[in-house]
């Protein structure tokens, strides 16, 4: 049976495609690759029919996939990874056992690596929350962004649609103080930029540049992830390591020599 592959394609840098993803891609003749993957993954797409999935409505997409399956496997390159904020669930369910999902490097993973920071730190941060102001909504009784932005929380903010001034003011209310914030723009892509500041300074650091395409009439995705929280800059010494070794790892029989 021919397969429909849903391949986590990472942030865009082809080096962050997994070996499994590349192997799956090789088997496909028809590949759905949204911008910018058609260009960044071009080395793996030679001789294949490449389309943007968002050019089709759902029934057209099914017809196109079914036609492609007559020839060979079909593949989708998923921005980042399927785990969250990926619109492919209805297709995966539709193809059932024919669907195969390959995990990829999520944007959160790429961001942590680029910042060289783990997003939880004992004593500093005890939770990391993935969130988008676009999907939070304003429903009565549901938590708002500022409710999620409390002391000890790292926030990873996807698809931001708030002006940066408003976003920072909202977060400041939640945290009750200015905390570190990073804007990670076009991670793993040409034009990558990382801005690190705090809630009081980051607007100034953007020098008026719109990192979220809020003024772009096409509404084109901005490819900017926001990471907020004290874990971004908190100093870390070896005491946490030694505490865990003494109280946890030694008891498990891990060699202490
Ligand atoms: C629809 S979500 C995709 C999330 C993805 N499924 C994942 O696993 O990470 C799109 C949002 O992810 C972030 N994003 C995607 N690609 C990015 C990149 N290369 N650099 C920075 N942020 C990116 C932006 O916040 C963008 O609005």
SSE blueprint:
Layout: E1 4-8, H1 19-27, E2 28-32, H2 37-40, E3 49-51, H3 58-69, E4 73-78, H4 89-95, E5 99-102, H5 107-115, E6 127-131, H6 133-136, H7 145-148, E7 153-157, H8 164-175, E8 180-185, E9 193-198, H9 202-205, E10 224-228, H10 239-249
Parallel strand pairs: 1-4, 1-5, 2-3, 2-4, 6-7
Antiparallel strand pairs: 7-10, 8-9, 8-10
The chain binds S-adenosylmethionine (SAM).
Outline:
The protein has helices spanning 19-27, 37-40, 58-69, 89-95, 107-115, 133-136, 145-148, 164-175, 202-205, 239-249; strands at residues 4-8, 28-32, 49-51, 73-78, 99-102, 127-131, 153-157, 180-185, 193-198, 224-228. By secondary structure, the protein is of the alpha/beta class.
Structural summary, described in words:
With 257 residues, this protein is of the alpha/beta class. It folds into 2 domains: 4-105, Tetrapyrrole methylase, N-terminal domain (Cobalt-precorrin-4 Transmethylase, domain 1, 3-Layer(aba) Sandwich); 108-232, Tetrapyrrole methylase, C-terminal domain (Methyltransferase, Cobalt-precorrin-4 Transmethylase, Domain 2, 2-Layer Sandwich). It has helices at residues 19-27, 37-40, 58-69, 89-95, 107-115, 133-136, 145-148, 164-175, 202-205, 239-249; strands at 4-8, 28-32, 49-51, 73-78, 99-102, 127-131, 153-157, 180-185, 193-198, 224-228. The strands form 2 sheets. Strands 3-2-4-1-5 form a 5-stranded parallel sheet, with helices on both faces. A hairpin with a 7-residue loop joins strand 8 and strand 9. The radius of gyration is 21 Å and the shape is globular. The model has no long low-confidence stretch (mean pLDDT 95). It binds S-adenosylmethionine (SAM). The site of S-adenosylmethionine has 23 residues, from helix 5 and strand 10.
